[in-house]
Design a protein that fits this description.
Shape: rod-shaped
Strand content: 25-35%
Largest sheet: 5 strands, mixed
Radius of gyration: 30 Å
Number of domains: 2
Number of strands: 9
Helix content: 25-40%
Structural class: alpha+beta
Number of helices: 4
CATH topology of the largest domain: Translation Initiation Factor IF3
CATH class of the largest domain: Alpha Beta
CATH architecture of the largest domain: 2-Layer Sandwich
Amino acid sequence: MLVVDEEGTQLGEMETRTAQALADEKGLDLVEVAPMARPPVCRIMDYGRYRYEQSKKARKARQTAHTVKIKTIKFRPKTDDHDYTFKKKHIEQFLEAGNKVKVIMQFRGREISHIDLGLEFLRILIKEVSEFGVPESQPQREGKLISFIIAPRKVRPAPKVEEIDED
């Protein structure tokens, strides 16, 4: 087998017993890193420390990873102006935080006969939050509900600044 020491220098091909004796002499472990290679490659290392560092890297990666959550906001065709603006502000906050928002228009009773009013309501909402997010699909009807998901914009448009020439 091909043996590599703890600094990464190749010690050449050795017998397994010789490599194990060398690792024991240094107080380290002999770890097979490439079993499918010809000849197989083994490394002399502190295996406990290696596992600890790998778990530390994995923990740090999980902490920095941002999971996208889907927040749900429900409307009805008779939603009042104040409630509409309140919910719209929440949608904008969720999108700025990087979360997706599922918007649901719920119809009750005879409201189902006025689906066109609900769709118009949702079109206006999409226009008003277009600065913060874009719909992933068109609103789809599911029984007494119309729903769609708004995804946050990757890069928000920067405000336009006019340059002043000083001559």
